[in-house]
Amino acid sequence: MTREFFRSRRAKTLIISFTAAAFAVTGGAALRSHARAETYRNIVNNTYQHAFAELTTAVAEMDAALQKTAYVTSQPLLAQLCTELFGRAMSAQMAVGELPYGNVELAQTASFAAKVGDYAAALSKSTASGGGTTEEEKENLRALAAASGQLSQMLQDLQAGIHGGTITLEDLEQAQARLAQSQETTEDTAGSTFQNMEADFPEVPTLIYDGPFSEHLSTQQQPKALEGMEEVTQEEAQAAAAEFMGLKPEIFTSVATGEGAIPYWSFSAVVDGGEVYIEVSRQGGKVTELMNARPVGEAALTAEEGVEAARAFLAAQGYGDMEPSYYISQDNILTVNFAARQGDVLCYPDLVKVAVALDSGSIVGFEAEGYLMNHTQRGLETPAVSEEAARAVLDPALDCLSHQLAIIPTSGKYEVLCHEFKCRTEDGRHYIVYVNAQTGNEEKILLLIEDESGTLTI
Fold first, then answer.
1. Euclidean distance between CA atoms 38 and 30, whole angstroms
2. I need a labelling partner for 241 at 20 to 30 A (CA). Which of 69, 91, 291, 340 fits?
3. How far apart are CA 341 and CA 436, in angstroms?
4. CA-CA-CA-CA torsion for 371, 377, 379, 381, nearest 10 degrees?
5. Which residues, in sequence order, are bridge partners of residue 406?
6. Taking Cα atoms as reference points, which of 377, 301, 380, 371 lies closest to residue 333?
7. Please, what sign has the CA dihedral across residues 139, 145, 146, 148?
8. CA angle 209-214-215, nearest 5°?
9. 321 DSSP assignment
10. Whether 208 contacts 214, CB under 8 Å
11. Diameter over CA atoms, the chain
């Protein structure tokens, strides 16, 4: 009896010991997990604070550079300041991207930095070609400087609040929770303060220049190829979609009506086991885009035969003198880029893309927005720089293979007439060099990436 009692007591003691050890282990793990979570939270918080500090510093430095560029008269110094300004603007954009939902709550700040950087790049290019700055450009710089000064001050005030503890930066989960709620939050966080700052964003000047943020792109761009054409009804657009594909209108179902550069009607249909999506412009009833998701089998056509099938399709659709430039083949679908030709000049802005299924030669993709936006009968200038003079600009290490005149788009959707030289290096790489036909300056250099799938330019 006594022995059994001690055995029982010993068992209980062991159970209690093991249980206590288990609780100790579990508690220790929980404490370690909590400590790791707290450490991670601190790291994230420090990262966000560092990103905001980087944004504040970048905008302050961008402001300082803008203040200088507004009054500089030396072209070499202006070029140097524009380079510095571009770098500061890029730093500001990267800092915005590191903040939780900064792309949403600091959209105007990011857009302003992008505009300043791009405008600086455009001025640097103009200065490098000996253009200098006009009085209008100087006024733009002064207006940008005034706006950046106000923005910089607002960011510095926020930074002081963060350091003083009156404002806290949200982490990603907090930002998600707040943005998911439609009502105002009572807590004063940097996220909501960002929104207040953006509401008081300084006025930004209207910029008309050769760049992607120029005001003329949003206010003046109209589809040139559709000028004078009448609006079509939805039924007429559906008939145009059917005719484009050689099918019956009744198999198409209306999907939506869209806006944008070219307002459109869109339709869908099931053809050859795949869904077809097609957009037709509301003005003129022209197909702007086609996507056919049918399964594509093994290739039965060569790339050259695919290019010819695409060319024949364009001719049948009323696209006149079109020249294939580059193509790429993926998953037995050949996508060919075509440009319009006017006389002996190739017009690259008038771009049409055609995708051909190499199993049958049928068209499974089409995109014509570039053509419809830009195609027109141009009044082409006679080149002031001859082919021989333009060729002399090329690096002697390049072996020129061919030449033609071409119109290329600038970053601001303007156009420039160039001598296009396709060249080869000693090690077999291919380049395309564009020399301005009016100034004789190198306008652009492209590197051709060629492999078994086709050719791309970068």
1. 12
2. 340
3. 18
4. 50
5. 346, 418
6. 301
7. positive
8. 120
9. S
10. yes
11. 120
Helix count (H) and strand count (E) of the chain? 12, 13
What is the chain's pLDDT, residue by residue, as a tens digit (458 residues)? 444 443 454 444 444 454 444 444 445 444 444 444 444 444 445 677 788 889 899 999 988 888 888 888 888 888 888 889 999 999 998 888 887 666 567 888 888 888 898 888 888 888 777 766 788 888 888 889 888 888 888 888 888 887 777 776 665 566 556 556 644 544 555 555 677 677 778 877 777 666 666 665 655 578 999 999 999 999 999 999 999 999 999 999 999 998 888 999 999 999 888 899 999 999 999 999 999 999 999 999 999 999 999 999 999 999 989 999 889 999 999 999 999 999 999 999 999 999 999 999 999 999 999 999 999 999 998 999 999 999 999 999 999 999 999 999 887 678 999 999 999 999 999 999 999 999 999 989 999 888 877 777 76
Q: What type of residue is 323?
A: E
Burial (CB count within 10 angstroms: exposed 0-12, middle 13-18, buried 19+), residue 368:
buried
Domain boundaries 387-457, corresponding CATH code: 3.10.450
Helix, strand, coil percent values for the chain (each to nearest 5) = 45, 25, 30
Q: How many CB atoms lie within 10 A of CB 283?
A: 18
- Asked whether 394 and 423 are in contact (CB, 8 A), the reply is yes
DSSP code of 414? -
Which residue matches tokens 């807590």? 187
Angle between helices 135-164 and 190-199 (to 10 degrees): 150
**Amino acid in position 130:** G
Q: Is 237 exposed, middle or buried (0-12, 13-18, 19+ CB in 10 A)?
A: buried
**444 backbone dihedrals φ, ψ, rounded to 5°:** -160, 150
